[in-house]
Every structure is written in C-alpha cells, then in structure tokens.
Amino acid sequence: MTLFGPDISNNNFGGEDNPDLAAAAAFVNALPGEGFSWVEAKSSMGSDFIDPTWATIYQTASAIGLLVVAYHYVDTSDPAAQAQTCAAALGGADVPVMFDFEDDSGDFDNFQAVLSAFQAAGLNVALSYIPEWYWEDIDSPDISGVPGLVSSAYPGGSGAASTIYTEDGGDDGEGWDGYGGATPVIWQFTDQALIAGLDVDCNAFIGELSDLQALLGIQQEGPFSMLTEQQQQDIYNMVLWTYQQVVGILANNPGNVTALPGSPTPTGTGWPQLGQNSAGQNLTLVDAVAALQADVTALQALVTSKEGS
User: Fold this and answer.
1) Which of 45, 123, 161, 244 is the most exposed place for a label (fewest CB within 10 A)?
2) Whole-angstrom Cα distance, residue 184 to residue 179?
3) CB–CB of 112/144 below 8 Å?
4) Does 248 share its domain with 271?
5) Are residues 248 and 114 in the same domain?
C-alpha cells in the first residue's frame, strides 16, 4: 500500500511573524479523516530559529495519535549549535528528525558534520531530504550512507494527493529513481496537493504504517508490538473462529465473517475428543453439550413415562 503525508511549516499558516496557530491545529486535526498517515513539520533552522508553529503542530498530532516528523533546515552555521536549536524546539520529545538539505545548506561535508552533531546530541535523524537538483549542485557526492533519502520531483498536477500521485506515475514514478548510490524511501511528489483546504507539499511512502514506523525508528508499543503483522492477524482470526465455536458455529473459514490473510492462520476441524456426529464430523463443545441436554431430556421423559405406568 502507499501512505501519504503533507509537509508544512509556518509559511502555510501566516508566516513566522504572525502565525495562525488555530489554523495549524485545525489542519492537523483534519488529516486522519482525509486519509493521511503522518505529517512532516518544520521544527527549526540553522542555529537560531525555531518554527513558531512547531509546538502546536506536534501537540495536536500527538493528541490524535498522528505520526509526526520534525524537519530541521540545515545551514552552514555551527553544527553543534544547530543540534542544540533543534533539541530546544523538540523540548525533550522523542521525535524522528528529517534534515532539509537544499539551498544554502552547504556541501556534503557540512551535511555530515551536522549529522554527527545531531547524533552526538542524541537526536534521531531518520530522514534526509536531499533533492536531486541540489545533489547535482554540490557535485553529485556519494550519499549512499545518509539516513532515509527523501527525493522531490513534481511532474505536475493539482488537487487530491492520491490523484496527483497516480497521475505522476504512482509507485513507478520518477521520484523513486535512485541517485548518488541511494534509493529514495519517501518521495515528495507535489507542492500542490489540496489538503484540508490548503495547497501544500505532499509525500508518499510505499508500505504499511508499521514499515514507516520502523524506518523512523519508532518503537511500537503494546503487548503485540514484537509480533509481525501476519502473526497479529493470526491472533485475530483465532479469536474470531473460537468465538464462533463457542456460540455454536463451526467452520474452518467461516463465510459470514471476514478473516485476515494471516500467515496463513492454522485451522482446525473441531474437538475430536468429544466424538462425532452421524455424518462423521467432529463435535464442538456446544454440540456435545446440546447432545447431552437431549439425552437428559429423553431420560426425563422415560422416567416420567415409567412413573405413570
């Protein structure tokens, strides 16, 4: 499957001098209902700028369980100071970071220096937005080791994100082509997607949400977090089919409910230790209890008959 997520900053909500925080929150709240799986939001830039909309966007996304990625615009100022600025913006929150490495970001040596500073500061840099045009501008270095390459290519179109993506080639579009020894894991395929009433940048990811979480270094919480998706589906199917047995409906693959693909899920044929019916089918626990009740009823009738004779 393909997931979509917009890319936003203060520029989408009035600018840094007069940001509309209510509009930013409303935008984020609308994303799940419009089918978006995550949001990338600018947190900081260089060594002295924190985006005034970041805190609102992060808090709103967290409140509704929407995956959020903070992006830091890299410049040529002191790498350690840049890491400190981003850390201050995140305020201790464990948020995956994307580098925005383009105009005025310097050469690839600067990228590596800033990356080292962020890692030393304990920040999780999971993505690297390095558009191919900028990669060419800095003499096409080997970028095979960067965290999660994010490409950009805007073939054209406007309107719904999924429609633009399909018209741009979808999962076979040009934004998935590799360069510099790296293959994009996310493609920013448009800057004109109509999302929650705004025309914004939008990204695509091929895979399921759990795959995206793994890419971003996000640990899934809960008792089933260590299981594969197929194993979780198996558990769902087994609970579903066990319920049917308990209420007296037995079939290996019930037609009146929808099972998930699973691994595939192992199936059974009833409870052989309870015996079989006249057709040779294994009885379920409900079948056995029903048969026992019938025997009790018949016995009661026989006793009553003898008492009356």
Assistant:
1) 244
2) 8
3) no
4) yes
5) no
**Hey, what amino acid is at 33?**
G
| Full pLDDT tens readout for the chain, 309 residues | 999 999 999 999 999 999 999 999 999 999 999 999 999 999 999 999 999 999 999 999 999 999 999 999 999 999 999 999 999 999 999 999 999 999 999 999 999 999 999 999 999 999 999 999 999 999 999 999 999 999 999 988 889 999 999 999 999 999 999 999 999 999 999 999 999 999 999 999 999 999 999 999 997 555 555 456 667 777 877 776 666 666 555 555 544 556 777 777 777 665 555 667 777 666 666 676 777 787 888 888 777 777 766
d(CA 47, CA 97): 15
| CB-side neighbour CA atoms (13 Å) of 213 | 12
Query: The domain containing residue 263 runs over which residues?
Result: 229-308
* Among 73, 80, 145, 70, residue whose Cα is nearest residue 119: 80
Q: Is 292 exposed, middle or buried (0-12, 13-18, 19+ CB in 10 A)?
A: exposed
Among candidate residues 152, 187, 215, the one where a domain is terminated = 215
Q: How far apart are CA 182 and CA 229, in angstroms?
A: 28
N- to C-terminal Cα separation, the chain? 75
80, 47 Cβ separation under 8 angstroms: no
Q: What gap in Å lies between CA 43 and CA 39, rounded to an integer?
A: 12
Amino acid at 285: L
Together in a domain, 177 and 100: yes
**Residue 12 carries which DSSP code?**
G
3-state secondary structure of 71: strand
